[in-house]
Write a structure and sequence with these properties.
binds 2,5-anhydro-1,6-di-O-phosphono-D-glucitol; 15 strands; Fructose-1,6-Bisphosphatase, Chain A, domain 1; binds manganese (II) ion
């Protein structure tokens, strides 16, 4: 069969053998995410036609105005994951506490915890610009058969067994890794099937795009200011192009295909930046590393950080390897 005809469903089954002791649960889990992605895609696509644009009226645990689609996407993903006997706990950007999936005896045998950013870039919804979903999957560390605990969620990113994102863009794509490279699937909306369209995705070693919210320049640390000046200097391939969508998923996706760096640094007004370690930075960092890219907090590897809290934030430098290394050089300087 030609590669471009492979569906995501077929791909998941074909690659089950990557996990020698697999019982098929991880495959089932990715299948559930695939299903939720299609449902959310359907809702996002008709957002301008029905009353789901705008604010939901609540402030989430992050202090942000929750959008109606934040709530809807959160609900769809949680429901789809809870209805199957695979996941024992879920943490989400939109939920203050983690959710324990039914503690009846059978469900407690589930091995996996999932962390999600149900809708990333939600400030873009009202203006019809790309948004995304991010997911991160771990094997629980506490014994199967007992209720899930905070310890199961607070694992360093290097323990992730899989991670991925969905970008609801000009076309909808699901991109994921189980630690054996990164593959991208495009949804054919007419028949509701994802096809393998981007096998073995890799960041170019270097690139000429930098993505950072320069409106915050005045608040950035000196290292970031100097790196931005370096990007703008005329020399060789520089000045680089500046591209910032305001949705991590979309900015990351573009940079992985074209070559670039995404930066959300700490600043004088946000001591750890804005992005959340567990369901934004860790999954993107695993994908970046699996795609020959790099993810750092400016000084060290994102995937090595021991998390302390569910919603903790971390500075994020991610993208083409050489560009991230250059930015780190400026941070050290
Ligand atoms: P979310 O919509 O899930 O809260 O995430 C928003 C994040 C990220 O997607 C984006 O890159 C960043 O916030 C944009 O922040 P600024 O508007 O501060 O640049
Ligand atoms: Mn948010
Ligand atoms: Mn987000
Ligand atoms: Mn979000």
């Amino acid at each position: 069969m030609e590669k471009r005809n492979t569906t995501l469903g077929e791909f998941i089954i074909e690659h089950e053998s990557y996990f020698p002791y697999s019982t098929g649960e991880l495959s089932k889990l990715i299948n559930a995410l695939r299903l939720a992605a299609k449902v959310v895609n359907y809702e996002v696509n008709k957002a301008g036609l029905v009353d789901i644009l705008g604010a939901a009226g609540d402030i989430n645990v992050q202090g942000e105005n929750q959008q109606k689609l934040d709530v809807l996407a959160n609900d769809k993903f949680i429901r789809t994951l809870s209805n199957r006997e695979i996941v024992c706990g879920i943490a989400s950007e939109e939920e203050e506490h983690f959710i324990t999936i039914n503690s009846n005896d059978k469900q407690n045998r589930n091995k996996y915890v999932v962390l999600i950013d149900p809708l990333d870039g939600s400030s873009n919804i009202d203006v019809n610009v790309s948004v995304g979903t991010i997911f991160s999957i771990y094997r629980r560390v506490t014994p199967v058969g007992t209720p899930v605990t905070m310890e199961d969620f607070l694992q360093p990113g290097k323990n992730q067994v899989a991670a991925g994102y969905i970008v609801y863009g000009t076309s909808t794509m699901l991109v994921y890794t189980t630690g054996h490279g990164v593959n991208g699937f495009t949804l054919n909306p007419a028949i509701g099937t994802f096809y393998l369209s981007h096998p073995d995705m890799e960041f170019p070693e270097t690139g000429n795009i930098y993505s950072v919210n320069e409106g915050n320049y005045i608040h950035f640390p000196q290292g970031v200011k100097s790196y931005i000046k370096y990007c703008q200097m005329e020399e060789g391939e520089r000045p680089y192009t500046s591209r910032y969508i305001g949705s991590l998923v979309s900015d990351f996706h573009r940079n992985m295909i074209k070559g670039g760096i995404y930066i959300y640094p700490k600043s004088s007004i946000a001591s750890n930046g804005k992005l959340r370690l567990l369901y934004e930075c860790n999954p993107m960092a695993l994908i970046a590393e699996q795609a020959n890219g790099k993810a750092s907090d400016g000084f060290g590897r994102i995937l090595d950080i021991q998390p302390k809290e569910l919603h903790e934030r971390v500075p994020f430098f991610c993208g083409s390897r050489k560009m991230v290394e250059k930015a780190e050089e400026f941070m050290r300087g």
